[in-house]
Design brief:
Layout lengths: L55 H22 L13 H9 L7 H15 L5 E3 L5 E3 L3 E5 L7 H15 L1 H6 L1 E2 L5 H8 L27 E6 L2 H8 L6 H10 L17 E8 L1 H7 L2 H5 L6 E5 L12 H18 L4 E4 L1 H15 L7 H5 L3 H15 L4 E2 L1 H38 L6 E2 H8 L6 H13 L3 E6 L11 E6 L3
Parallel strand pairs: 1-8, 3-6, 3-7, 4-5, 5-6, 8-9
Antiparallel strand pairs: 1-2, 10-12, 11-12
Helix pairs in contact: 2-3, 3-4, 4-11, 6-8, 9-15, 12-14, 12-15, 14-15, 15-17
């Protein structure tokens, strides 16, 4: 349990939480993101005056165009959970709001990417200590989950990284990479030894090329096709999942295999993209229970508008200067603590988030580290506010984002599970009073794909919900001894 820091009025400041202003500092809160279900963006969709020089017919056509665009946005966003505006009541939230009019990306997707990138940029020194040996670096791994095209996952991430590129072009060029493939490859990215000097990867000097700048252990893995990474992790002998679990804790990723590498320091962040369909198809109950995915912050996203305005270069310059100054100051912190009021807020949030646990469902597995992600985000917000004390405002903003993440997990995993349950229930009901044996379910419905654990979990859920009953079918040869076939019957079949 961390020790509460002395409370001072200078630390428990307002929503912008600026200890000191300064040139290029952004201290004015932006407007809250709008209701994207009723607008297509700027122009006629927002009720502005018609452009001069247009005829009545052309204006009417513009109105129809914007109405159609607004309807597309509304349909794209109808499955999303509601995001609490408090999620944007922080410095990074303010940045997301300020650039929101200039991107079709979801503002919560922009915010999540900013959170993930900032946590990597600060490096391994800023951290939160919770109890004995539980050291939390400020690493947050958002996984943006949205439909192909209308999800605008890449658009949201690109907007955030464009701002990061303007704030620190060297970090954007040298510390942001893609291509997670194996545990050994990940360890090699942080290795401080020369590694294999006999392979084709070795340069003219006889040394393996280094991915990161010398002495720099910060890596932001941008994986826009996370489904491919998931497929690699399922290959026999692939150790990427195990090493990712270590990397989330920060620190030593050294390997002890035949090609042993020394990687004593690592600071890995991940920003991943995937569609809901890909996620439900690739992930299994065993994957969730293995603990890799509860390190991630699932964020449901969709296109926010049509026809955004071009960003003002002066605005981007202002925001970039502010972000650069804040990142530089925040990276100098070491351990961050709580004010007394924030410590009480943290205790409440632990009870709230742990209250989601206890069940064995996939959603509970996915969100089981919500409390840890919350305190990491709050500490990141504090560091960017140039203080090493987490305040209640930081906890409130972090908790709002984590709650949205929990709701996203329920929407994504829950909807996928319900779809699978409904399809299986229909398959069983179509057999009428004859029912379906487990073998028929495996071969005819699941086509011998997927794991037996996933199949049995769905059948057990249908039975628990009272949608099917389990009985035994007598042997076809009339014998009473030996194994009988287990049959699933739809209720009222």
């Amino acid at each position: 349990m961390p020790t509460a820091a002395p409370d001072t009025s200078a630390l428990d400041h307002g929503r912008t939480a600026v200890v000191a202003g300064g040139q290029g500092d952004v201290t004015t809160p932006g407007a809250a993101p709008g209701d994207y279900s009723t607008t297509a963006g700027t122009g006629r969709g927002n009720g502005s005056a018609p452009p001069s020089g247009f005829s009545v017919v052309e204006v009417a056509e513009l109105d129809r165009l914007h109405a159609a665009a607004a309807d597309q946005v509304a349909r794209a966003r109808q499955w999303l959970p509601v995001v609490d505006p408090a999620a944007f009541a922080c410095y990074l939230g303010n940045l997301a709001q300020r650039i929101d009019p200039h991107t079709e990306g979801d503002p919560v997707g922009v915010l999540a990417t900013l959170v993930g990138a900032a946590g990597v940029h600060l490096g391994p020194n800023p951290h939160v200590q919770l109890g004995f040996g539980e050291r939390h670096p400020l690493l947050i791994w958002p996984i943006l989950i949205g439909a192909t095209g209308i999800g605008r996952k890449g658009t949201a991430t690109n907007a955030a990284l464009a701002l990061f590129g303007a704030a620190d072009p060297y970090f954007r060029a040298e510390n942001v990479h893609s291509g997670l493939s194996s545990g050994e490859g990940l360890a090699a990215a942080f290795a401080t030894d020369d590694g294999d000097t006999t392979g084709e990867a070795a340069g003219k000097s006889g040394k393996s090329p280094r991915l990161l700048p010398e002495g720099d252990c910060r890596l932001l893995a941008l994986e826009t096709e996370w489904a491919s990474v998931m497929a690699r992790m399922k290959r026999e002998g692939n150790t990427l999942g195990a090493l990712l679990r270590q990397a989330w804790e920060g620190g030593n990723l050294s390997t002890l295999n035949v090609q042993a590498r020394m990687a004593a320091r690592s600071h890995l962040g991940i920003v991943a993209h995937i569609t809901p369909k890909e996620f439900s198809a690739k992930v299994s109950a065993a994957d969730l229970a293995g603990g890799t995915y509860n390190r991630f912050l699932p964020v449901a996203v969709a296109q926010s508008k049509h026809f955004p305005t071009d960003p003002d270069p002066a605005l981007m310059e202002e925001l970039a200067a502010s972000l650069s100054a804040r990142l530089t100051r925040a990276g100098g912190f070491d351990a961050l603590g709580f004010t007394p009021a924030a410590h009480v807020a943290w205790q409440r949030l632990q009870v709230e988030f742990n209250g989601h646990l206890g069940a064995d469902g996939p959603v509970e597995e996915f969100i089981s580290r919500a409390a840890a992600n919350c305190v990491r985000i709050a500490a990141l917000y504090a560091a960017l506010d140039r203080t090493d004390h987490i305040t209640p405002d930081h906890m409130t903003a972090a908790a709002a984002l984590v709650r949205y993440s929990i709701d996203s997990a329920r929407a994504i995993v829950g909807n996928a599970t319900n779809s699978k349950l409904n399809a299986l229930a229909k398959f069983i009901a179509d057999a009428g009073p004859i029912g379906r044996t487990k073998k028929e379910i495996t071969t005819d419905h699941f086509k011998n794909k997927g794991s037996a654990d996933d199949r049995d979990a769905l059948l057990a859920q249908l039975a628990n919900d009272g949608r099917v009953i389990v009985t035994q079918r007598p042997r076809a040869d009339g014998r009473t001894s030996g194994r009988t076939a287990e049959v699933y019957l739809a209720v009222n079949a």
